[in-house]
Amino acid sequence: MLHEPDLALHIEDLTVSYHSKPVLWDIDLNVPPGVLAAIVGPNGAGKTTLIKSVLGLVKPAAGHITLFGRSYREQRRLVGYVPQRASVDWDFPTTVLDVVMMGLYGQLGWLRRPGRRQREQALVALAQVGMEHYAGRQISQLSGGQQQRVFLARALVQDAALYLMDEPLAGVDATTEQAIITLLKTLRSQGKTVIVVHHDLQTVASYFDFLVLLNVRLIAQGPMSEVYTGDNLRRAYGGQIALLREAEHARA
Amino acid sequence: MIADLVASPGAVIMVVGALVGIASSLLGAFLVLRRSSMLADAISHSVLLGIVVVFLLTRDHHSPWFILGAAAVGVLTVAMTELLASSKRVKIDAAIGLVFTFLFALAILLINLLARNVHIDTHAVLLGEIAFVWLDTTPLGGLEVPKALLTISAVTLINALFVTLFYKELKLATFDPGLAAALGFSPTLIFYLLLSLTSITAVTAFEAVGAILLIAFIIVPPAAGYLLTDRLWLMLLWGGLISIASSILGYLAAVALDASISGMMATIAGGFLVLAFLAGPRYGLLAQELRRRRSRFDNAERMLLVHLYQHEGQPGSQEERRVAALASHLRWRPREINRLLQHSLDHNLLTRGPGDTLLLTPKGRVLAQEVLEPWRG
Amino acid sequence: MLELDFTIRTVALGAVLLGITSGVLGSFAVLRQQSLLGETLSHAALPGICLGFLLAGGRQLGPLLLGALLSGALAALLVLLFIRRSRLKTDAALGIVLSVFFAVGIVLLTYIANQDHAGQAGLDAFLFGQAAAMLPGDVALMAWITTLALALVLAFWKEFKAVSFDPGYSASLGLPVLALEVLMTLMVALAIVIGLQLVGVVLMAAMLIAPAAAARQWTKGLGSMVALAALFGAVSGLAGALVSASARGLATGPLIVIAASLLVAASLLLAPERGLLSAAWRAYRARRNLPQQRVLIDLYRLAVAHQDPGYPVEQGMLASLYGFDPGAVLARLRRQGWIRPLSHEPTEQAHWALTEAGYRQAAELWEH
């Protein structure tokens, strides 16, 4: 049974608790397809928890989530996930190509080994992020920006319709940041939906076209030009940052 | 009375056990808080090497060099472990596991090779001979006092002195090493002092209670204390009390079952921990479950108020519609929802209006607003 | 053709099986940073062994190992329970379960001893390992368990790899991460169970860690690490077990562990890329080359800043930059043709400028 099939992501009444404290409370979110969306909010606002709830990695206390009208379990093939870089031990003995091929494990099923076709798919994904020459490199030898690109390639190889990314631009050099944004915009032009937890208020307005302001509750959502206002930012960040004045200047 | 004490094997055993427990748990509290429990496990194994080496060199059961040898090996263990981990070739948990097992294996090998016909056997290593602590006595003040009692009392005193004198420093170094360093005293030094004392406690207690009881008393009573309280000094107190109780009950149980005394003491300590885990007033499982139910209820109540607030003035505030909506959102049974409703009505958050509707009272409205617009201050 | 002693053949086979399983299964434990779980589970096996003895009425390996596996599994479960449902941290949970289970085991052991002295001797062998006590039937059982373990690893290879590397991402792909993690933990228990007879409960943890840690220093990929760990495990097992079986009164466990530890030390020092000696050599070479590179680059940057490839730099300026007179390094650079001396009126001080080749070389160095 389809529920809101026209929305890439539809969240209703989502509440997630941790140790009896709400981390996300009564979230109603509607993301249309084909947007490049940013989720921003202060630390502890529940941004990562929101992504994990969509992916089924965290059990909600209440509410439900559909992707293109169906549950996540039915739509796994359509979703690509890029977790935070720090969630992994980069000293693991494996190569760049190997990591990217892991993105195909879900499709391979039990007992089948990745073969030539999977290798080729992985190399194509690596080329998309400019890392095809690093295929045989040990991941322990990569820089932060390179690590991020490998994670991206791993998600790209799934050829998803919706991408969920957790702080992909945090801690990368300027060149990599530009390359990633260009890639995300390319994905959007291909009709994909990209939802990104973003850490930087300075750049969010120029990089993204859809904004979600989150601070345990949903503060505001919608097209960037409508939502990125001083008022909304103040409500989200509790009026604590001087940056808000700059944001208002930027809009003016 | 003291004469009776030192003459009674049972009493001596229980007192020695209790003192080992107190001495260990005083230090163990800080080790557990510092997440170094497994390091303590490592030291309790590797001190054996110090004991064996000193014994082979001095051939004397009661040389003061044992203390030095123990402290040295304890520090060596930790230093080697940290060195290995700092090379980045091996993670810290693997480093811990590699270093102490190597040192312990060396110790056992040396015992096998060189000390076979002398009084260290590997069985005793693990168990100690607490059953016999009362035999080896020395004259003191006209009485025959078990040596173990004297040495372990001394160590307990030293540990207590250490913890008392350096209480503030230990506390700070454990919770905020950065601040400690910034304030000018070295958390590393304090940590190594702690470890040296742990090694010394270990070697003193080894003969009596062996490796098992030692590591159990270093970790288990303090951990139980951690589950029972937030205050450091209370945690130390609980550690001591549980050690005493475990010692007494353990001895009695061991005699009844004709089994290892040290093993029984450690097992009882484990029992106390399980009790704290289940029934601890603030952090026990039961307490957690009660809190969870309470907050689930509170959350649901808030949700009800918020929904009413958002639909205020609109048609459809009928009780039935609201109840049905709530039931589907929360996946609760009708009986639970009715309990919720009753609670809200009783606390003057809602009233019943004409036509079977539910209305917010001013008090309820304030609560709903608090949730929806927390920035309103 | 040497006629090998029957006991020694048995022991050797058992040791090789032990080494293979600990190497293979230990690799995953080490990569997932569960080395100390192995320590806890191996101590926690003791009560299970004793209960197996009691229930089977004697020393029969099957029930003993089954008991060990079950009590190990229970221990793992309790550790998880403590961590998930209380404020106890991982290290405390591990330490508690380790010491209490072991204590219970000792209680059972002494209880059995007081009922039946022969039994105790048989069980004592499980404390530090006793190679000489191995029977051919024991080896057969070990072989079955080893085969099972290897089959599991082969079948679920890519899943184990993915879950060990990135459990969060693997879950998003639809892999049953919890089930796989439980399986991997059970395999740790299995590996321990296989080795208990030879190494004993107290030291078995080392066998889970050492071969894998040694192998990690030599390899780039998971497959080669696991294979090499199996080899290292087998070699340590063999060495230790053979020495112990041929001498009298030497416990096997310590010998095997010492062999494995030596392999770790050797690997840490001698491995080609990760090895400490190799790294020290590279650092030495870099230090020797560094002053020259640095001076060259500094000259380059000054030249770029002044938009003059032949920009003359006064030696005194460099001296104050480095804190000492770089005369020797400059002389070397001049000999290599990267720089040339100049005079720059009105001062009498030595000046240096990059040559064309030097400018190009410096530019290349700067790009890296």
Can you describe what's shown?
The complex is a heterotrimer of chains A (about 250), B (about 375) and C (about 375). Chain A has about 250 residues and is an alpha/beta fold. Chain A has helices spanning about 45-55, 70-75, 95-100, 105-110, 115-130, 145-155, 175-190, 200-205, 225, 230-235, 245-250; strands at about 10-20, 20-30, 35-40, 60-65, 80, 160-165, 195, 210-215, 215-225. Chain A is built from eleven helices and nine strands. In chain A, the strands form two sheets. A six-stranded mixed β-sheet of chain A has the order 5-6-7-3-8-9, sandwiched between helices. The longest helix of chain A is centred in the last third of the chain and has 16 residues, at about 175-190. Chain A starts with 8 loop residues before the first strand and ends with a helix. Chain B is mainly alpha-helical and about 375 residues long. Chain B has 16 helices and four strands. Chain B has helices at about 1-5, 10-35, 35-60, 65-85, 90-115, 120-125, 145-165, 165-175, 175-180, 185-230, 230-255, 260-280, 285-310, 320-330, 335-345, 360-370; strands spanning about 135-140, 145, 350, 360. Chain B has a two-stranded antiparallel sheet. By secondary structure, chain C is mostly helical. Chain C has helices at about 5-30, 35-55, 60-85, 90-115, 115-130, 135-155, 155-165, 165-175, 175-200, 205-215, 220-245, 250-270, 275-305, 315-320, 325-335, 355-365, and strands at about 315, 340, 350-355. In chain C, strands 1-3-2 form a three-stranded antiparallel β-sheet. In chain C, a hairpin with an 8-residue loop joins strand 2 and strand 3 (about 350-355). In chain C, helix 7 (about 155-165) crosses helix 8 and helix 10 (about 205-215) packs parallel to helix 12. In chain C, about 50% of the residues are buried. The model of chain C has no long low-confidence stretch (mean pLDDT about 90). Classes of the chains: A alpha/beta (about 250), B mainly alpha (about 375), C mainly alpha (about 375). Chains in contact: A-B, A-C, B-C. At the B-C interface, helix 3, helix 5, helix 6, helix 10 and helix 12 of B face helix 2, helix 4, helix 5, helix 10 and helix 12 of C.
